Amino acid sequence: MTVADSSDLWLRRYHPAPDAPARLVCFPHAGGSASFYFPVSAALQNDSDVSILQYPGRQDRRNEPLVDDIGQLADRIAPLMAPLFDRPVVFFGHSMGAIVAYEVARRLQDSGHTPASLFVSGRRAPSTHRAEKVHQRDDDGLMADVKALSGTDTQVLGDEEILRMVLPAIRSDYRAIETYGTENGTVDSAITALIGDKDPKSTVEEADAWRAHTTGDFRLQVFDGGHFFISSRAPEVIEVLREGLRGSVAVG
C-alpha cells in the first residue's frame, strides 16, 4: 500500500447503509469502474452496506498510474478492508474482479480476516489456464475483443474522446489478468461461482474448478447468457447475492 492509499480513495458507497447487517464489497471487471455496480448497490441497500472498488486510472482516478499486476493491486486493496469486518463481509467480483477479490481474500485470511462468502462471476478458476495475449493487440484488436464481450456501451466505444480515456485502463487490466500466474491456493470463505453458459472467457467446467480453491462450501450457478450475463440476468444475480448476504448474517 502506498502512503496516498485510503479507503476514501479506493471505495465508493453510493447508498450508505451503516446499520445494515452485512457488507458487500464489489470488484469491477477489466476496464470497469465503480459506477458499473451502481444498480447492484441500489438493489441491495436494504440488505447490506455496499462498497465498490474504484481502481486507479479511471473516472475520478484517471490521472493516477495504472496497476497492471493482479498481485500488486490486491496488495494495495487488502489493508483497506480490515475496518469493514465489524460485521459479515461478502465479496463479489466479475471477470478480472473475481480474481482480484480472490487474491484480496487470500491476503486478508493471512491477517486474520475472512470474508463469509466469495462470489466469483464470469471467470474461470485460478488453477485453469489459457494462453491469452489480447493486451498485445493493436487498439482495433483490443476494442474488437471488448465489443465481442458486450461489456462496454458501443456508443462509448464509438466516441473517440472517451475511447482515448478508457483504452489505457482496458489494456492495463487485460495485461494484469492475462499475465496472472496459475495459483493453486485456497480460502476458507465459501465460494459461489456464477457463469454464463455461453461465456467465451470460461466454460462451465472451468468455472466449476473454483471448488478446489475453498476449504468451505462451494456452489456453481449457471445462467443463460454470455460474459455479461450479470447485466442481462441482473434480477436473478441480485437474488443470488441477496441470499448469500442473508446466509452470511445467519452464520455470522
How would you describe this structure to a colleague?
With 252 residues, the protein is of the alpha/beta class. The protein has a single domain (7-129, 182-251), classed as Rossmann fold, CATH 3.40.50. Helix content is 39%, strand content 14%. It contains 10 helices and 7 strands. It has helices spanning 7-10, 38-43, 70-81, 96-110, 139-149, 154-157, 160-178, 204-208, 229-232, 234-251, and strands at 11-12, 23-27, 49-53, 89-94, 117-121, 190-196, 218-223. Strands 1-3-2-4-5-6-7 form a 7-stranded mixed sheet, with helices on both faces. The protein is globular and about 50 Å long. The two termini are 29 Å apart. The mean pLDDT is 90. InterPro entries: AB_hydrolase_fold, TEII, TesA-like, Thioesterase. This is Thioesterase. Pfam families: Thioesterase (PF00975). GO terms for molecular function: hydrolase activity.
